[in-house]
Design goal:
Layout (H helix, E strand, L loop, with lengths): L3 E12 L2 E11 L3 E5 L6 H8 L7 E6 L8 H4 L2 E4 L11 H11 L5 H10 L13 H12 L6 E5 L7 H14 L6 E5 L3 H7 L2 E6 L2 E7 H7 E6 L1 H4 L7 E7 L2 E7 L14 H10 L2
Parallel strand pairs: 3-7, 3-8, 5-6, 6-7
Antiparallel strand pairs: 1-2, 1-4, 8-9, 10-12, 11-12
């Protein structure tokens, strides 16, 4: 039995004006992977390919030991939260629950009721009158109420206030208490990923630039601030990116190759992403 929840090998998908791949990465079971990149980099396309919502041009995708991710039985094992709630807006909570209980063979009514109470979701109000935060809470309640092993969130926390985002992160922490559970979460709010992710996958222009442990990533790179004169003396092979200011340069470097006397600080995930993409 594989130790990976998701295995991707030489995955390719081409559109007019955009090519994804070839992608190669594996998501270990029992981990949280933060999926980062700019808009249009390929995050949502990759997630749709994993879910079988798009057909790949070539390569291999295996999810929870299966290459056919479209079967109803297999979808029971995957909880999905997109950036919107895709139900008819005139439905209320009771009608949504009846629909979900008919779709998922492992639907847990009691668990859904617990989430409904925890999130204070109104039963009789139609969902077109729900706030964005309420819609996201409902999406998560549905995703976690059919005994899913893999939870995939695509920009689910964008546009939410910090209090609601913290509530959602707490639910994700609870979900990960079972060792066999796995999360893939794409987000532009990198501070959230700093809190919860074990690994960071960074995609840019359709290619994975790195897939690394969050802690190893922060140890691998460092930021230093130097005058233009001192910056020009650095070995260019250790420089990942530079940002020039009126007082000098801020530089992302490979930590282990840095001169011993160089003063550095640990970068955030956001720092690393910005320097990889925008650092001259």
């Amino acid at each position: 039995m594989s130790n990976y929840a998701v295995e991707i090998e030489n995955l390719n998908k081409k559109f007019d004006g955009f090519k994804l791949g070839p992608l190669n990465f594996n998501i270990p079971k029992g981990t949280v992977v933060g999926f980062i990149g700019q808009n249009g980099a390929g995050k949502s396309t990759t997630i749709k390919l994993i879910l079988g919502l798009l057909n790949k041009d070539s390569g291999k995708i295996e999810v929870l030991g299966e290459q056919d991710t479209r079967s109803i039985k297999h979808k029971d094992k995957i909880g999905v939260v997109f950036d919107d709630l895709f139900f008819p807006e005139e439905m209320d909570l009771r009608s949504i629950e009846r629909l979900c209980s008919s779709i998922y063979s492992n639907w847990e009514s009691e668990r859904f009721s617990d989430f409904k109470n925890k999130f204070n979701l109104p039963e009789k109000q139609v969902i077109k009158n729900y706030s964005r935060g309420m819609k996201m809470k409902l999406s998560i309640a549905i995703a976690l109420s059919h005994n899913a092993e893999l939870l995939i969130l695509d920009e689910a926390t964008s546009g939410l206030d910090p209090v609601v985002r913290e509530e959602i992160l707490e639910i994700l922490y609870d979900f990960m208490q079972k060792e066999e559970h796995t999360i893939l979460i794409s987000s532009h709010i990198l501070s959230d990923l700093e809190k919860i992710a074990d690994y960071i996958a960074f995609i840019n222009e359709g290619k994975i630039l790195f897939f690394e442990s969050k802690e190893d990533l922060k140890e691998e790179y460092a930021i230093c601030t130097l005058s233009n004169e001192d910056a020009d003396k650095l070995d260019e092979s250790i420089v990942v990116g530079r940002r020039k200011h009126s007082f000098g340069q801020e530089i992302l470097i490979k930590r282990k190759f840095a001169p011993r006397d160089l003063k550095t600080q640990r970068p955030s995930i956001e720092d690393i992403m910005i320097y990889f993409v925008k650092g001259a």
